[in-house]
Amino acid sequence: MINGLRSAIYPVADLAKAKQWYTEVFGVTPYFDQPFYVGYNVGGFELGLLPDGGTPGRAGAMVYWGVRDIEAEVARIVALGAAIHHPITDVGEGIRTVELADPFGNLLCLIDNPHFDLTAVR
C-alpha cells in the first residue's frame, strides 16, 4: 500500500547555492546537512538536495508543494530567482497549480487545493 508523498529529491550542480536558495524559499534550515545530501522537513515531508545527482530536468517527475495563497507564493519565489515555467492554471473545482523553474534546472511546482485533507496524511 502506498502511503503518500514522503520525499522529493532535486539534483543540483552547486549544493551550497541550492541550499541557500531552498532555505530561503521554504523558510526552514536543513535537518540533515552533509556533502552528499541535504534534507529539509517541509510540512512533514522531505525535500532533498542531491549534489552531482545527474542533470536536473523539467521533463521528469513533477512534485507539487501545497500552498494556501498561490499568487503570493509565486511572487515571493520569483523574487528569489525562480522563473515561471507554466503559469497559474485552474485545473478544475477550485484547484490551481503553477510550475516554477528553480535556478538549478528543476521544476518547483505548487498546488493550491482547497479539497486537500491534511488529516488523511499518514
UniProtKB/TrEMBL annotation:
InterPro entries assigned to the protein according to its UniProt record, in alphabetical order: Anthracycline_SecMetBiosynth, Glyas_Bleomycin-R_OHBP_Dase, Glyas_Fos-R_dOase_dom, VOC_core
PROSITE patterns, alphabetized: VOC
Stretches assigned to the VOC domain: 4-113
Pfam family of the protein (one): Glyoxalase
PANTHER family linked to this entry: GLYOXALASE FAMILY PROTEIN, GLYOXALASE-RELATED
Protein name: VOC family protein
